[in-house]
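new request in #modeling-help
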Amino acid sequence: MTTQREMPVTSSIPLMRPWVDEAEVMAVANTIRSGWIAQGPQVMAFEREFARHMDLPHAVALSSGTSALEMALTLLEIGPGDDVVVPSLTFIATANAVRRVGARPVFADVSPVTGTLTAATIEQALTPVTAAAIVVHQAGVPADTESISARLPSLPLIEDAACAAGSMTRGRATASGALLAAWSFHPRKLITTGEGGMLTTTDHDFARRARRLREHGTDIPAAVRHNDASPRRESYGEVGFNMRMTDIQAALGRVQLARLAALVEQRRQLAEHYAEHLSVDPRLTLMGDPDYGLTNYQSLCLRLGPDVSVNPTDVLHSLAEQGITGRHGIMAIHRQPAYRDHGHVALPVTDELTERTMILPLFHQMTRGDVRRIARHVLRAVAA
Ligand SMILES: *Cc1c(COP(=O)(O)O)cnc(C)c1O
């Protein structure tokens, strides 16, 4: 059996590595030993702690960030006949959730500075049947939801905060004031539960209904029924889902949550080192803080200026030869086969960003030396 200590020391650098150690192992083991592993006391504690940490009123743990988006749309009663404005420049789950509830995603362009929707780009995508917009805090860079709401006050916003744990907007946790926000704990995000998500809301009734809907619409959660000495019969008021998180996942999430501040600080420091090293070539820019907030650098997006003659694929190949794993920039959903026949307005900024950006390695255990080495190879590749 190979243990972590026996693993060979290689000089290859992955894109991302979650920060998980013995504390998580113990928390998971203790939960398994407790005899209750499905949704129960750990999930309740994780929800409480997440809400406190993010300074928001209601948190409902779910099976994934995608589930949380689908739940948010369901709570707004969005379905067939409704349009929902979404960016194309995002992970495909954002648009898929809209399709899954039977509504139509309408793609809008994004700001070239933040890669996120703005009031102006949303306005271009409005139709007579627009029911909501999903604003994505892309790669951890907060969108300016306050100015969107100021200009479009009657448009309900769902915030896709899948990547945004630890980002800040005007001095508050990003998405903490959201009517509805969807969070993800996939290992590609800052804190992880393996798979998992959270729906947060400022609306008490949305939170109550989401708790029932995630468990098939029941009025008595299974964990409560289990501990109830009297044989009460539960009732199912409406058709729900199974979107539950397990106590095993929540136990992991509670330990991860305590790491969030340190994770963000380390990522921001490493990003600063990247910026220092890459600044010798003025044609390169890193997507960073907007003037109203702070990014958690969930992804470190490097943009190649128009006068760089190579493209991200060339640079990624050069990095791969050095054992360094990068990725193409954020995908554009309107270019995917599943959305081929889906009409959309012109998306020039989205096209430019998806073609000319790439994602560089960034994770907690990286060293300044790793950053220096990666930056050196990037500079060499773009100088070619
Ligand atoms: C990861 C991600 C999702 C989906 O989250 P899962 O937990 O993987 O379902 C949705 N939107 C964005 C922007 C994401 O990055």
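bot summary: DSSP finds 13 helices and 14 strands in the chain.
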